[in-house]
Design brief:
Blueprint: H1 5-10, E1 15-18, E2 22-28, H2 34-42, E3 45-52, E4 55-62, H3 84-95, H4 100-107, H5 111-138, H6 144-157, H7 162-175
Helix pairs in contact: 3-5, 4-5, 6-7
C-alpha cells in the first residue's frame, strides 16, 4: 500500500498534542510547501496555521474514517496581564504536579496562556540561576555601605517602581 503525503511527512516532523487542535503534525511555515496543501486536503487532512514556540507553523490533523469533523474553537487573543500572585500560584500548582488544563481551570485562564506563562517562568528562572552563578564567581562581595545604599534607593523608588525595587532587593540579598 502506497503511503500518503501525510504519512511521509509524519516520518520527518513531530506529532504533538496542541490545544485546541488535538494531536497534529507540526510543520514550520518556513518548511511547508504550498504544493502540499491540495494533496493533503485530498487525503482528508485539515490544515491550520498559528504561532507556535515563537514561529508560524502549520498544524496537520488527519481525520480518522470513523471520526466526525472536529470543531476547533478559535483562540481568544485578548491578553490579560498576569499578576505576581497569579504567577506564584501557577508555579505552586505546577510544582504540585497539576496539569496545565487543571491549572487553567483554577486560574480562569486559557490552556495556551497557562502553558506559555509556565514555560516563560521556567526559562526566566533558569536564566537567572545561570546569571547568578556567573555573577557570584566574577563579582566581589560589596561592603555593608553598598547594601545600605541599595536599600535606601529601594525605599525611595517604592511603590512607583516595584520592579526596580525587586531588582535592587535581589542585588542586596546577593551581597549579604
Amino acid at each position: 500500500m502506497k503511503m500518503g503525503l501525510y504519512e511521509e511527512l509524519a516520518q520527518s516532523f513531530p506529532v504533538e498534542m496542541v490545544s485546541p487542535f488535538g494531536e497534529v503534525l507540526i510543520i514550520s511555515s518556513k518548511v511547508f510547501k504550498s504544493e502540499w496543501r491540495q494533496k493533503l486536503e485530498n487525503e482528508g487532512v485539515k490544515i491550520y496555521s498559528q504561532g507556535f514556540n515563537g514561529e508560524m507553523c502549520f498544524f496537520l490533523k488527519k481525520r480518522n474514517q470513523n471520526e466526525s469533523e472536529v470543531e476547533v474553537q478559535p483562540i481568544n487573543f485578548a491578553h490579560k496581564t498576569w499578576s505576581e500572585t497569579e504567577i506564584a500560584e501557577l508555579l505552586r500548582l505546577r510544582s504540585e504536579g497539576l496539569s496545565y488544563r487543571e491549572i487553567a481551570k483554577k486560574l480562569n485562564r486559557s490552556l495556551h496562556s497557562v502553558y506559555h506563562k509556565s514555560k516563560q517562568q521556567t526559562t526566566l528562572r533558569s536564566d537567572n540561576k545561570v546569571s547568578e552563578t556567573s555573577e557570584t564567581k566574577t563579582e566581589p562581595k560589596l561592603n555593608d555601605d553598598v547594601v545600605k545604599e541599595l536599600l535606601s534607593a529601594c525605599s525611595l523608588l517604592y511603590p512607583s517602581h516595584k520592579r526596580a525595587c525587586k531588582l535592587l532587593l535581589e542585588q542586596a540579598t546577593r551581597q549579604v
